[in-house]
Amino acid sequence: MLRLFVALDLTDEVRQRLAGLAGGVPGARWTGLESMHLTLRFIGEVPEDQAMDIDAALAEIRAPAFTLTFDGVGMFGSGRRARVLWAGVERNEALAHLQAKVESALVRCGLPAEERKFSPHITLARLKDAPADRIGRFLSDRGLFRAGPMPVDHVTLYRSHLGNGGAVYEALREYPLENGA
Ligand code: 3AM
Q1: Virtual torsion, Cα 79, 167, 114, 110, nearest 10 deg
Q2: CATH value of 2-176 in 3.40.1440.10, 3.90.1140.10, 3.60.15.10, 3.10.180.10
Q3: Could you tell me the distance, in angstroms and rounded to a whole number, from the CA of residue 133 to the centre of ligand 1?
Q4: In tens digits, what is the pLDDT along the chain, a chain of 181 residues?
């Protein structure tokens, strides 16, 4: 079985900027530079033959390249159940269009449809018992964060290797987006 997800890579410049947001929250496990990405669709564990179908389906996607602008920070969960600190992206039709194409390609491969609304973000940290006041300060201090525009010219299929030190992500294949020129 392979544990897979589809994501957008970030440029080194954007990774550095996002990494610069880290700090100041006890109980936060910050995402390493090498692990930063924007998930389009978590797939989960699939057998190898289905992984090959998924690869073929992703390779058939035709969608235009675009740029992404990063905007602000937020969190998933609240109070004692605060789970994730993230950086957001500006509303982006091309991103929504691409995500919808990825979703329909995966459903055609036999995966169950994603029930949850797509909420594009980059995970900055996972939280465990982080004090609410420090989370609040993080969110207000970093609220004006902006980065980009960053060009997006491919989609990546990642494999996630779960281990004691957290997941390690391996890029399996890149699928180019189409240039308008
Ligand atoms: O890109 P982020 O960090 O938001 O949390 C996991 C990570 O998201 C998420 O998929 C991305 C790559 O691992 N993920 C892991 N297990 C998941 C699940 N069961 C999941 N998303 C949805 N359902």
Answers
A1: -160
A2: 3.90.1140.10
A3: 26
A4: 999 999 999 999 999 999 999 999 999 999 999 999 999 999 999 999 999 999 999 999 999 999 999 999 999 999 889 999 999 999 999 999 999 999 999 999 999 999 999 999 999 999 999 999 999 999 999 999 999 999 999 999 999 999 998 899 999 999 999 997 6
Q: Give 42 Cα–ligand 1 centroid separation in angstroms.
A: 6
DSSP β-bridge partners for residue 169? 160
Burial 141-178 (b: 16+ CB within 10 A, else e): ebeebebbebebeebbbbbbeeeeeeeebeeeeebebe
Neighbouring CB atoms inside 10 A of 51's CB total 19
Answer yes or no: are the C-beta atoms of 170 and 158 closer than 8 Å.
yes
Indicate the top mutation candidate among 2, 38, 42 to test ligand 1's pocket, ranked by most ligand atoms within 8 A of CB. 42
Alpha carbons 65 and 174: distance in angstroms, whole number: 13
Q: Give the closest residue (by CA) to ligand 1 atom 19.
A: 44
| Local structure of 107: helix, strand or coil | helix
